[in-house]
Specification:
Largest sheet of chain B: 5 strands, antiparallel
Shape of chain A: globular
Number of strands of chain A: 6
Oligomer: heterodimer
CATH architecture of chain B: 2-Layer Sandwich
Number of strands of chain B: 5
Order of helices and strands of chain B: EHHEEHHHEE
Strand content of chain B: 15-25%
CATH class of chain A: Alpha Beta
Number of domains of chain B: 1
Shape of chain B: globular
Helix content of chain B: 25-40%
Number of helices of chain B: 5
CATH class of chain B: Alpha Beta
Strand content of chain A: 15-25%
């Protein structure tokens, strides 16, 4: 699905990377544990997380993940958004929980990594 | 090419800066993305370990056309039981470290998985020195 569809499905707000909303993403991974994210070999992933700090952006950067969905209205700081912009990462927020977001995205065709 | 950087203990807001810088250098040098990813994942885990668990240290990288050698050396306090520390899921991370999204007990095993050769010199009340070797020839890589 495209990032634009992700935004629609989770009633999301795009904080940066609007120019990439036509990009396709095929896999989803939901975790607040960054070391778990760092075990993933794939990079065509939407990272779904409630961890709103610099390390979430850094972990995406190191893992070549280009899209992050922050759940439960987590508000990334300006530093985080600037860091994401620097590395071409699209940042989306949603009022939905991690469970609801993951369920909706899975139901609409986003595949699990495992 | 040889670069080295200081890593400060407890400086979570800057954890990852060294890995990000080294990633940029490797991209400019034209190293294949598949190698960059495994090298940087291992380096980032090691960098976070220095920030989270040590008194501070230094990261040095030697980048050659066919290999990358990374040494992560801190000034202590050391790992009393290395075998236990290499066990997936085992962690001594503080609540502060866990709040940063780390402390899942996957760091050292992630490093081992991504490096072609790994050696760790450590002990109770000792510095820890991690040597990671990455072969850049496709055939040699174990990742």
């Amino acid at each position: 699905m495209t990032l634009k569809e992700v935004v629609e499905i989770v009633n999301g707000t795009v904080l940066c990377g609007e120019e990439s909303l036509d990009r396709e993403v095929h896999l989803g991974f939901a975790s607040d544990l960054m070391s778990d994210v760092l075990t993933l070999l794939e990079d065509d992933i939407l990272l779904i997380t409630g961890l709103s700090n610099n390390q979430a952006i850094r972990t995406a950067e190191m893992s070549d993940i280009l899209q992050i969905l922050f759940v439960r209205n987590k508000k990334p700081t300006k530093t985080m958004v600037d860091l994401a912009k620097e590395h071409g990462i699209t940042v989306i927020t949603t009022p939905y929980s991690m469970f609801r977001s993951s369920g909706l995205l899975f139901g609409n065709g986003l595949k699990p990594v495992y | 090419m040889h670069v080295s950087y200081e890593v400060r203990a407890g400086d979570f807001s800057n954890a990852g800066n060294v890995s990000s810088t080294v990633k940029g250098i490797m991209k400019k040098l034209g190293i294949a993305p598949v190698h960059i990813k495994r090298i940087i994942v291992a380096l980032y885990e090691a960098e976070v370990n220095v920030v989270a668990h040590s008194f501070g240290g230094e990261i040095s990288c030697v980048i050659e056309p066919d290999s990358v050698e990374i040494v992560v050396a801190d000034t202590g306090p050391g790992i009393p039981d290395l075998e236990l520390a290499m066990t997936e899921g085992w962690s001594t991370a503080t609540p502060e470290v866990r709040e940063m999204g780390f402390g899942a007990g996957m760091g050292l095993s992630n490093i081992r998985k991504n490096a072609d050769r790994l050696s760790i010199d450590t002990g109770e009340n000792s510095p820890t020195r991690i040597n990671m070797h990455f072969a850049l020839n496709e055939g040699e890589s174990n990742a």
